[in-house]
Amino acid sequence: MSSLIEIHRAAVRLFARQGYAGTGIRDLGKEAGINSATLYHYAGGKEEILVAIMAACLEGLLDGGRRALDHSADPAVQLVRLVRLHVAMEAVNPLTSYVTDREVRALSAANRARVLGLRDDYESMFQRVLERGERTGRFQIDDLPTTRMALLEMCNGVSNWYHPGGRLSVPEIQDRFADLATRLVGCRSVPPAESGTGLRVARLDSEPLDQHADEEALA
Predict the structure, then answer these.
(1) At what angle do helices 46-71 and 109-135 cross, to 10 degrees?
(2) Rounded-to-integer distance, Cα 34 and Cα 55, Å
(3) 3-class secondary structure, 125
(4) What are the structural domains of the chain?
């Protein structure tokens, strides 16, 4: 198990730095400190490694998203908790999130369908919350598809610029993004007690240890 974790961390470092296409199997073995035969034994080929990394990241979002939706029937609360979850995942797992967001096109058809299925399942949570908020009058939305994409892209971007020790902590970024989300859909802010400050997002096994000081963040 430890060898598989090290392989995934090595892969994330390389895929984030030089891209999936620019990374060879020997590069992965060298980065992980093992030979190619051992790498294949523990992790399979390069694409299998990428799929495993992406699936774990998306399944983490799906699990957190389900908890966000189960907490309350209020679409505003659900939206804020989804946003806080996504921000935390991107901040705590920046390289894994970066690779997951950007390397889908490198996959073969079957693997792409699997990963896109997971991503669609997650994004549909935002869709359902926005539809329910609009239907109940909780939200004021002019263009629902554009609003959904704006929310997702806003959250996805955190992995590009967040650094521990920067001007804002993860909880502070979550607070600001939650406020932006409620403004975007035209509803009042959600009380702190309902906004999801008690949930946790852990560092994924694939995330390199040297990327950040924090191993988990409030979601």
Answers:
(1) 20
(2) 24
(3) helix
(4) 51-218 (1.10.357.10)
pLDDT digits (tens), the chain, 219 positions: 558 999 999 999 999 999 999 999 899 989 988 888 888 888 888 999 999 999 999 999 999 999 989 988 999 999 999 999 999 999 999 999 999 999 999 999 999 999 999 999 999 999 999 999 999 999 999 999 999 999 999 999 999 999 888 889 999 999 999 999 999 999 988 877 777 665 678 899 999 986 554 444 444
Cβ-proximal residues to 20 (8 Å cutoff; 6+ apart), any chain: 46, 50, 99, 103, 106
Q: Any idea which residue has 């609009």 for tokens?
A: 134
**Token duo for residue 187:** 């509803």
Please provide the DSSP assignment of 29-43 as one string: HHHHTS-HHHHHHHH
CA distances from 167 to 156, 170, 181, 219 (A): 19, 10, 21, 19
Q: What angle do CA 131, 154, 191 make, to 5 degrees?
A: 65
User: What Cα–Cα distance (Å) separates residue 87 from each residue in 43, 63, 128, 160, 172?
Assistant: 29, 15, 19, 12, 11
Count of alpha carbons within 13 angstroms of residue 172, beta-carbon side? 8
